[in-house]
Design brief:
This protein has 384 residues and is an alpha+beta fold. It has two domains: 200 residues, Ribosomal Protein S5, domain 2, CATH 3.30.230.10; 173 residues, Alpha-Beta Plaits, CATH 3.30.70.890. Helices cover 41% and strands 23% of the residues. The radius of gyration is 21 Å and the shape is globular. The protein binds 2-deoxy-2-fluoro-alpha-D-galactopyranose. 2-deoxy-2-fluoro-alpha-D-galactopyranose binds next to α5.
């Protein structure tokens, strides 16, 4: 039985009613890392894995939640609640708190949550969770939330309840994803262009390093703050800029002279990564996968050397992949400090590559990597 059918059955058994079921996918990002919170460009796509949320009104003074992953129930008074940080229920209450603040009407409901996003892979399971919750609640209470407002509420939940000052990329990709397309997203206008992903003989393969370093969240916020500090300094010379995205084709020597040595490489990453995203979208559109792959490699170099959000395991995986015949490009994906690399690989070389990496990674780090084949899929929707 598939996950949706299991959720439906368990919901019926637990809450004795039939749920509306929403689905929101996880995401990959082809290129454009750590640019979204500088209103830059990103190039994500939704994947086949995601989060299912079953929901139905219950006419009770409280909401009853059930997580299939944690096999755990949670109940709260829907008229007076405070999100409990660090717990899965936070994402439900966090979303609800924002609906309440915006004046949307809601009442008691039962909700069941299940998902199949590989844990710790950096495929944005928390964004998918919030987007699925928003999609389900919007349908249940007839709120007519737009995909963009669902994305913004999801982003805000991360800021307020998870303490990560992330950009909009992850919930946006989950909400707006389109089968076989990547979204060339401008994180200033919050508008995107759908670009067909036609890889011919090639596939996208993720290699999960299976490491998650604890500094991830604090380092993420520090990087964002470093960008903001750079903008503050650079404004003296370039008063027209609001974010690093506004520095298009700048004289980097001049930028370097204006910024302290600790900030310049970070700013350089954001400026150059925005340019790489545009070039990568052009390469993909014109079918020039070799150039596209080179841009992935350059992105990794910049994230590792300049932005310093990689780690030994990701550098190892990217380097081995970049030197493997049949791979056109490889880079770390997402926030960094663990999670996956994304690889553009000749489909028929996948099993040779997996065997080789398995052996090399185990020899080097004493642990196993895992491999995830991705299919670019549709974004959030009501599935029944
Ligand atoms: C995480 C964040 F949630 C995104 O907003 C983005 O900044 C990404 O890291 C890095 O590109 O996934």
């Amino acid at each position: 039985m598939n996950l949706k059918a299991r959720l439906q059955e368990l919901f019926q058994k637990t809450f004795e009613s039939t749920p509306i079921i929403s689905f929101a996918p996880g995401r990959i990002n082809l290129i454009g890392e750590h640019t979204d919170y500088q209103e830059g460009f990103v190039f994500p796509a939704a994947v086949q894995f995601g989060i299912w949320v079953g929901v139905q009104k219950n006419q009770l003074p409280y909401c009853r939640l059930y997580s299939m992953d944690f096999e755990e129930e949670f109940t709260f008074d829907w008229q007076s609640f405070s999100p409990k940080k660090g717990h899965w229920s936070t994402y439900v209450m966090g979303f609800l708190a924002q609906l309440k603040q915006a004046g949307y009407p809601f009442a008691g409901f039962d909700m069941m949550i299940g998902g199949d996003i590989p844990v710790g892979a950096g495929l944005s399971s928390s964004a998918a969770l919030s987007v699925s919750i928003g999609t389900g609640l919007s349908q249940l209470f007839g709120l007519k939330l737009t995909l963009l407002s669902i994305s913004k509420y999801a982003q805000n939940s991360e800021h307020q309840y998870a303490g990560v000052n992330c950009g909009i990329m992850d919930p946006y990709a989950s909400a707006f994803g389109k089968k076989d397309h990547a979204l060339l997203l401008d994180c200033r206008s919050n508008q995107h262009q759908e670009i067909t992903v036609n890889l011919g003989e090639y596939s996208l393969l993720l290699v999960n390093s299976n490491v998650k370093h604890s500094l991830e969240d604090s380092a993420y916020n520090q990087r964002r703050a470093a960008c903001e500090k750079s903008v503050e300094i650079l404004k003296a010379e370039f008063p027209e800029i609001n974010t690093l995205r506004d520095l298009r084709n700048p004289d980097l020597n001049q930028v370097e002279k204006l910024l302290p040595a600790s900030l310049f490489p970070k700013a350089k990453h954001v400026i150059s990564e925005c340019e790489r995203v545009q070039s990568a979208a052009d390469s993909l559109q014109s079918g020039d996968l070799k150039s596209f792959g080179k841009l992935l490699n350059a992105s990794h170099q910049s994230l590792s050397q300049d932005y310093e959000v990689s780690c030994a395991e990701l550098d190892f995986l990217a380097e081995k992949a970049q030197n493997f015949p049949g791979i056109l490009g490889s880079r770390m994906m997402g926030g960094g400090f663990g999670g996956c690399t994304i690889n553009l690989i000749e489909t028929q070389k996948i099993s040779d590559f997996q065997e080789k990496i398995h052996q090399l990674y185990q020899e080097e780090f004493g642990m196993k990597p895992s491999f995830i084949s991705v299919e670019i899929s549709e974004g959030a929707r009501i599935v029944s």
